Amino acid sequence: MTVMTDAVDTSAVAKKKTPASTPEGVDAELVGRLVEQARAAGLQLTGEGGLLQQLTKRVIEAAMDGEITDHLGYEKHDPAGKDGGNSRNGTRAKTVLTDVGPVEISVPRDREGSFEPQIVRKRQRRLTGVEDMVLSLSAKGLTTGEISAHLAEVYGAEVSRQTISTITDKVMDGMAEWQNRPLDKVYPVVFLDAINVKIRDGKVANRPIYVALAVTVEGTRDILGLWAGDGGEGAKFWFSVCTELKNRGVEDVLMAVCDGLTGLPDAINTVWPKTVVQTCVVHRSRKETRCCFGTGSSLGWYGSP
Questions:
Q1: Could you give phi then psi for residue 250, rounded to 5 degrees?
Q2: 86-118: per-residue pLDDT in tens?
Q3: Which residue of 15, 72, 234, 239 has the fewest CB atoms within a 10 Å radius of its CB?
Q4: 192 phi, psi to nearest 5 deg
């Protein structure tokens, strides 16, 4: 059997360029022309008055123009809107803090005052990315003053310490709601353990964060709760955790996996009497290794002849 193949010009294949991958809906040629025009005009890409700030301003204003058009039911300057009830009523200036720094935008208004923009809501002064940035810096241990100084230095944005505290407090409210949310009635497996993390409380120090991680009946993982401690917590503490989980709706746990803390299995079985308590294999292996080899030069129970 003879297999026929078409001849391929390898030099042509080598010269062929793979088109650049661009996000869907983004015209790469248009972006290129904008950058070239900015360079020709001596315009910086970033910084105050830069290309990114101007593009952000245009995009936000265009989106809000579309919103008020949908709200009123006719395009700007359309005769259909003349003497037809509610209509456009100019714009008002507003400065919002974005990922590329502060941007002044023109917010459209209507005569009846019923227009509720969604892109930048009324009384909203920060876009979502800025809040994420503040939370990220806060999670890294920066104080409100350090975060404020960082935003001013890098983005030229003046954000007060009170504003930063407001952003972080809003997250704390969300965390409290998450920590007290209702739970499923039954979990096949619940892991009880702790991890040490660095926490700033006057000074940075390692503190244990106690975790209850469950496997749901659908086979997915779910963190049931997190509790900060000081390292001195024992079986009594875990009893209070299990009681809290039961009060939030957990009626039964088929298997609980934990370390070998004295009294912990009894604490679990006091809350869920039929739960099988399994020692974590990692903790069990460590304990067996200590028993076999001991510490230093001692060989533990393999020791003396």
A1: -80, 105
A2: 888 889 898 887 777 788 888 899 888 888 888
A3: 15
A4: -120, 120
